[in-house]
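Lab notebook: predicted structure, single chain.

Context: the supervisor wants predicted structures on file for every construct in the current expression panel, including those that have not yet been purified. This is the next one on the list. No modifications to the sequence; it matches the entry in the shared construct table.
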Amino acid sequence: MKTIRWVWALVLLLGLAACSSTPEKSYRWSHFDSHVQVQPDGTLDVTETVTLRLSGGPFTFAYRDLPDRRLDAISAISVSSSGRSFSEVDDEDSEQPLTFSVFEHEGDRRIRWVYPETSDSEATFQIHYQVAGAVRRYDDHAEVWWSLVPPNRDELVEQSNSQIELPSGVEANAISASTPDVAGDVRIEDSTIFVTGRNIASGQELTARVEFPLSAVSASKPQWQVAEEQQAEYNRTTRPTVNVIVSAVAAGLALLLGIALRLWWLRNRDPRPQGFVARELPDKPDDLAPAFGGKLLRNGDATLLLGTLLDLARRGHVSLHEGDSISRWNKSNRLYLQRQISDDRLAPFELELLNSLFDGEAEVELQAHDSGMIKIAKQLGERAQAALIERGILTQAGLAQRKRGIIWGVALMIIGGIALVPALILAERYSWWLPALALVLDIAGLIWLIMASQKYGVSQSGADALARWRAYRSYLSSLKPERTAYGGYPELLPYATVLGASKQLTSAYSTGSEPLPVWYYPAVFSHHGHAASISSGGGGSGGGGGSLLLQDFSQNFLSSLNSVSSSASAASSSGGGAGGGGASGGGGAGAG
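Prediction complete. Output recorded below exactly as produced.
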């Protein structure tokens, strides 16, 4: 055993030594030289000679990004090194030495070439390509404004010895040259401009701007220059008028939609409650079943189902039992529902609900994602809405108005969203007020949707009932332990559940000596992870017997109920001499 340990220790030390001795990889551009030859037809023949100073390694590839800014086309790309030509391949992730690939990368054209593994050395490569449309033409001169060293680099360029060669016959005194971006040494000999730069930091660009007679090249204006000049003329002469027109249309549209929204709301808003309604109401507002009150306040169907089951349990028709935990990750206990015998009369919707839920069985598990439970909850919601309409609390006309308002809001938002995409695309060219038109539709649709969602579709009596149920919800939500009545928890829980206040109610009652409801059996009464067959008979000892207090089980009780309710709810809803503003070419480069 000691021998094995020594062997493993030695292997570990050797591994650490190997890792610590591995040199870090770094590089910089020793040279980045560009030779740009202006052809008589206006095309550029460009050869870039780059030398990488590599430290550590190994290095196996490098890349050069060529953007298409202020030029018409790039073609005839090739890569070579020391007289060896690289072969072009389609694989942009190729690892085969002496190959290169050309592909789109973040809007640029990337040239990536692979070379044999190289460490602690210098490597020199030539990138050659042809450019169309880089010679700009103005009224009194032609111009080449070219990026000799690209800006998008992570490392320093120590030296750049570049030259731009004009067609023969162009006299030196007719040539003007400068380096607008980074200071460089410029020298003109015959028809060639020599540009030298040193220690060009990452992010900096060495460009040469060369002006020469129009007669030197026979090319017409590049397409991009024509487009830029047309855009500049449009901006100067037409855009101000278009801005005024489009902004006026946007303002008019906003005004019309605002008026339409105002008229819709005045005609379709719910009636106001008559008389005074307290902010909090400690007594049940009326004889509505918990599910009907919850539906009036537009709570979820799964919440209505759970509140109805708790009300049925309170009246002795069902009992709830805890089982084992749902899963390793969800520690909430399973909840089982057991049907009980009771002489209490059931409303038709309650009898239908129990028959559908149990389907002839004596016991069922409350499962959050059970499709049958979701269907039963939806049916209960529909029955509750129909009952509210039958009682004159909700009106068919009011619900239809609410639905139409929501449709209008959604339609306006969809139209605005669809219109926003082309508006943003065309904004820079025509007018930045174009997106405002789409935003007016979007905002109006959102406001309409919010206003329609605030409508309940109630009658005058329904408005009064709604105000009372809201006050009752406020009371249950703000109930304090000192205001609780002993034994009142089972009576209030169904209403608190459908009104979304079960957590606050349970918290208020669980601080005292409130016993568990007689219809609720915690895990201590269960056997083998399954609900125990204990019947309260509508009022036996059950879970509320002995010293089992609500405060001992309230947290698990709430988490179990809420996991069922919330999951089921989620499942059921378901020009000029100055030229353009920068050089042609550019891009970036790197190695790895």
